[in-house]
Amino acid sequence: MSYGRDGGRRFGGPSRPAPVEVGKEYEVEVTEVSKQGDGIARVQGFVVFVKGGKVGQKAKIKIDQVADRFAKATVVS
Q: Is-contact 3 10, C-beta < 8 A?
């Protein structure tokens, strides 16, 4: 079985820590909507799914969950 030149890492290189933390609040602008209907915003390029977010909405969000490549959040104001 071959894992390729990068030792099997699909996206290459070591992963960076997420620029967001569970429980913290951030000001964002929703720029897209996911297939599931949640808004998509970014914090330092890191994808954050915003429950119920609408394109163009500027809001303060609270991070509920952080995964390796994305986070989930809810609007607080």
A: no
